[in-house]
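Protocol step 4 of 6: structure prediction from sequence.
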Amino acid sequence: MLYSVQHQVYSIKMFLFADQLEYDEPMQEKVQRMAQFLLLFYVVAWLRAPVAEDAPANDLNLYQGGRLQRELEYVRSSLGEGAGSLHQIVVQTPREDDSSVLRAEALLAHYEAVKAASQVSVDMHDITWRLRDLCYAPGFPVYEEHLIDQIMKKLIPCSFVTPLDCFWEGSKLLGPEFPVHMPKMSSEIRWTNLDPEQLLSYMNSTFGSEFQFDTLQKYMKRAGITNGYQRRPCLNTSDPECPETASNRASGARLDIGAELTGGCYGFATKHMHWPEQLIVGGTEKNRTGHIVRAKALQTVIQLMGERNLYEYWADTYKTHSMDWSLATAKAILDAWQLKFTQEIQRHTGQHNRTRPFSISSFSMASLNSILRHFADLDLTRVGIGYGLMLVYGFFSLVRWSDPVRSQGGLGAAGVLLVTLSVTAGLGLCGLIGIPFNASTTQIIPFLALGLGVDDMFLMAHTYSESDLSCTPVQDRVGEVLRRAGVSVLLTSLCNVMAFLSAAILPIPALRSFSLQACILVVFNVLSILLIFPAMMSVDLRRRRARMFDIVCCWAEPGPEEGHAEPLESFSTQTQQPTKRATVAKASRTGEVTTFVSHGPELDVGAGGDSAPQPHLTRSVESLDSVASTRTLVRADERRPTTGAVFCPEGRRHCRRLGLQWLVERHYLDWLPRRPFKLAVLLASLAAAAAGVWGACQVQDGLDLTDMVPRHSDEYTFLDAQRRYFGFFNMFAVTQGNFEYPTNQQLLHEYHQAFTRVPRVIKNDDGGLPDFWLGMFRDWLLDLQKAFDHDWALGLIDQEQWSRNASEEGILAYKLLVQTGRVEYPIDKSQLPHVRLVEDGIINPKAFYNYLTAWASNDALAYTSSQAQLRPEPKQWLHVASDVELKIPKSQPLVYAQLPFYLNGMATTESIVETIEQVRSICRRFEERGLPNFPAGVPFTFWEQYVGLRFFLGLALLCVFVAVFLVISVVLMNAWAAGLVVLVIGLTVLQLFGVMGLLGLRLSAVPAVILIMSVGIGVEFTVHILLGYLTSLGSRTMRVQRSLEHMFRPVFHGAFSTFLGVLMLAFSEFDFIIRYFFCVLAALVVLGLVNGLVLLPVLLCWIGPPAEVRPTGEADVLPAPSPEPSPPRVRGPRVYRSSSLTKQPTKKLKPAPSQLSLSTITEESSGSQSGTSCRQEARTHDIVVEPQVVVETSYPPGGGERRPAGSDGALITTKVTATTHVKVEVHAPVTCADARRPRRRREAADSDSSNSSQSSS
């Protein structure tokens, strides 16, 4: 893939420079089509890339490739995608903080809101869908009598978990929507007036033996369906429908709502529907007796079918026969109803006076998924503003208004556009290879990749702008820029790639996708900067060579030859007749050089050497230790104007250059060598590190869902209230296959009882756990056994048959007892009566799966209430007393079963993690005993990552630090330098961790990725300074100063561009983006900039590694290379040069007194005997020059410090004239060339602009 990407980039490059490569017309058309195909191909792949938010919402928080993913996959494969139940939740809190909801008015307002919202309906595919069509309703056995079946279908209501069930008003939520009419009854039946016991008694007396009301009555009594809501107290006793049997109707006494809610409430089937008080009342305060006296919140939960359950429930029915019924359709119906429910809650709360004193909010997974989809949408306006802002910054940071030819604003803008195209292409490749897009891709990646890419572009542009390339042939100048800056760009990009790959260690799918996408974009950015941006610099070099203005290329500045551009072929060799500025240098014995630079009129240099009177001079002082050679000394004040500086008009006596470079050179570099400054920096760094340690200790694990939704939204209000007042979750203990359920029943009971020791598992009123499916199954069989024993004792049942007076339960028990569980002979009547259905608490193992079939079908209410979700599902078999067929089908062995539990007090991540560890410990213990099991539920899906998050974070940080150390050590061949970089970056990460603690952020996978990513980004702030330090000469302090002088501005501009790249994140409507991305990344930029430009230089001054190249001895400069030896001198006719032969009268600068000594020439000459013999053989003489020198520097026409834009390759002549006016030519004899070369290299170190010799720069 990398090989093909390189060819694709090269193809686009061929298209961009087709006019220079001179293609014929067919080839040019082919290249153009290829480039268009590649661009469109990548863009289409980007737009069609998979979006993670279309998948389940837990993709952001579950582990990948680990235990949790395997467990979730097992649940999904066993139950099917979308199986289970959904919850529509309503939470009510008072708007005043000191109020309580333990008032009748609060509960009545709660009822009105829930009632209004539950009556909404949606129309899809010309079919109306109501709550009754979508809700989870308890199962009920099927009867042969059609009338009973119709009555039960209408009366069995949806399941509401609500505090209203403690009162008669809870019956108003159950309906039915259309009252039930009974034959021979004048009144209509609703749950508001339904007394099931009285109804069955009336029907039995009215219809007699036509119906089996006795069996139905026993069944309802076993489920706890007795008096319904008729004896529960009324919140409003003045309600005309309040029954006379209500506990407070006759007395009218004031109702103690807190006492009624204490211990929870019961639904219409009291045995299977107990709602713990922690689930329905929140923020409670209790008295000494344990009764609730104050509460802050009420909660109602409506259970809906999952999309798969809804699909299977309505498949092949009259309601869906005319439509394309599928899982997607079922999901769309559920989402639409839930969203409409939420909207109705908001509308009702705002329009009714009773609900206005309270804050009532609703929540569902559909609304959360809608927010996440909006969260993942790409905001093109914000992206456009961000990229436009970066484009403007790239232009203005490199533009030079006073010198439009040397200005590089267009190059900066083109670089930003190049990075934009690179980001687009990289995202296209990510979509092409199947890396899913998610919220971090659309919200973070475009801005982060832009900042990192523009950082490298600024370094290349500054190197291109500030480097002295006058002595480099024009065809090699771009290569020279790559040689100087390419290593830094490549090194930082490699470190970023290592950081993002290390972040992919975190086993979280969305964040792993984020890391891989960022890694690919970094690769695309570095390829574009190193391959395409040099071509842009080459084009800009041609523009400057043609003296065209920046941006407005149709305008040009007249050149030295009447505005004609100099041919490129002669650019590196042709010279111009220069003008002259005078630079007078005076050296003292203390090592200080005083340089006088004239700012007067231009002085033309002639052959005679005369000069005009001395113009005004500007005095500057610098140390000889900072001078690498005589050429550097001469050019001390010939530096190019800094971008953004304020230029002085020609002829001004005083000139101040303002800007970042001026501040660095005039102030920062002066402070840096001072010991107090270094001590202050070290103390401040230690204090920051200590604060980072303290802040890191304050960081807690977790990620609040309130950070994921916009503030002031209804979802935010709900999530905040639910977190503060409830902290309620349900969980399941799942048992798997490859386990003998019939023979290991005792182990299952012990497994269930082990959860009693988990403190946050809600217990019953008696301190025990709610029954699970195996316990309910056993209790049902025990009741049947009692009925059989009673009928057997009365002689109603014998070994062969039963009589007509035998009970239905006794007959069913008879059919079960004769089951053998064997396929070859399923029935054995000889087992009676010594075989028991349940013996010593253990169900008969041989016929276990036959019994399971009968229980699931004939005790449907208990089976559905157990939430066992047995897989494979038990077979259907309905018991009919008159049916003499004894064979009961055998269900398949179980591979999946679950035990439900309710958890309370889970408001903090610490409490959730503690509970997870306790549950996992139980699961491991029983796993060792042979029971394959695991826990499931929201806490484990969303919070189990925090159990191992810090371990994975530490592992990833260790990997990235080792990778950065190895990359820098190998590339620079300097482990010392790599250690310093890792130290500084480690302090940056520690300080960033502390900033997270100070900002109150929690440690989750998202901040963990940013911490890992900060290592790679931190390299951007350190490596450039380090490379400049390693490649400089002199003492540690001098090398640090030289590195900062050249690298401070590009590092600062790169950091500022990164800040601009993430600035648009501050305008997101999601607090999560602002707090966890913008604030953290902005803090990273500030900390990295301070540590890279302040702390690292101080450390380098004290413990920096040695330079890559070190002069011999204690010298601070390298000896200049000696010139090639001249041929033997041949006497010829003497040639006299006269000033009369020049075209213009010449003027000479008057010598100024100087203490600069060039006596090094004579000292070097007498340094060896071999050198002496060679000089004698060549008949040369020692040259002694007085310590006074005049340095004359001539520039091409343009004058002053403003050099013409087209003079990059023009010769700048430097003439050093001794006061004796002696012109000296030094020739190396051919016979002694080898002996003289080392000496001449040493001579050139101090005088590479020797007396009257001309050097071009």
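Step 5 (inspection) to follow. Residues 76 and 277 are 31 Å apart (CA to CA).
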